[in-house]
Structure formats: structure tokens, C-alpha cells
Amino acid sequence: MKPAALLLVVFCAAAPARADDFFLLSAGASYMKHADASYRATYGRGAVQPEFEIGVRVSRGLYVMAGYGTISGSGQIPDLGFDARSTQSFLAGGLGFIHPIRGILSFKLEAGLADLMYTEDTAGFSFSGYKLGYQAEAGLLVSGKVVFTELKVGIVAASDTIGEVKFKLGGMRIGLMAGIRL
Prior knowledge:
By secondary structure, the chain is mainly beta. It has helices at about 5-15, 35-45, and strands at about 25-35, 45-60, 60-75, 85-100, 105-120, 125-145, 145-160, 165-180.
């Protein structure tokens, strides 16, 4: 079973925990600093990526989460001059914890598995694959009764090897999300 399918099964199995659970849905953007030095040399230090996240509370403060983000870029391979295009996406699933700090301010921690998928096209060759890695983040939430805004920092990471070349996927992220609580 592909890791992405496994994450979806785990999320769906845990979601209907209780009838009074709350549901979180958020969307936003993050700036990701690419983890791999060769990737940075070809595509730049980082890029903005859209992100989406859902979560379902399973007990007080604890919730099951799933998230998705994608990033793409184009550039030239240093010293060779070949044009290159790349896409990296992640599907993450895991556990999160939200703890109130004071009033409308809360602290959030998340950790879980991430399925990182990639494609790269250069010099007439195409490489693609996926690798299971991890995702972790921390954030501050400003919440009303239904809507919230979140400032977060985190990492999504994995590594893979093609031939004898080992490379890193993902990277450090800082983002701003907006969402609803039901």
C-alpha cells in the first residue's frame, strides 16, 4: 500500500471518534527553504507553497490531522546549463495538540508521517518517486468561536537515492494559515 493511502486510511479510521468532536479546516501559504543544497542551486533557496489541513479532535486538546502542500519550480542545472523543472508535494498525517495560552491565543504542536512525492525533468530525462518521511510543526493560533488564524513553523523531510545520488526532499517552513472550527 502506498504511504499516502495508508495515511488516508489512518485519518479516516480515527476521524469519527465522538459525535461532539470539533473539526478544523484551514488553508494558507508557507515559505519553504529547500533542504537539499543541489536543489537550492538549481531552483533557488526556497519558494512559497499553498497548504491545506484538516483535523478532528479525539480528546481534549488532542486531534488527528492530515495536510497537503505542493511546490514547483524551474531553473538551470549549474555548470551544465540544462533547463530543469521540479515538483514536490507532501501528504502528511499524524497527531496534533492545541493548548490555550490566554484568552483567544493558543499554542499548537503537530507531528506525524509525510509521504513526499517528487518529479524532476531535465535534459530529456524524467525522475519521479515518493518517499516516506516526517512532518513536525509548532504554531500560535488566534481563535474566535468559529474562525482562526495561525502562524506556524515546521519541517517536512525525507531523503531518497537515484543511482548513487542521495538527495533530500522537503525543508523548513514558515507559514500563515486561516481556517474554521466546527
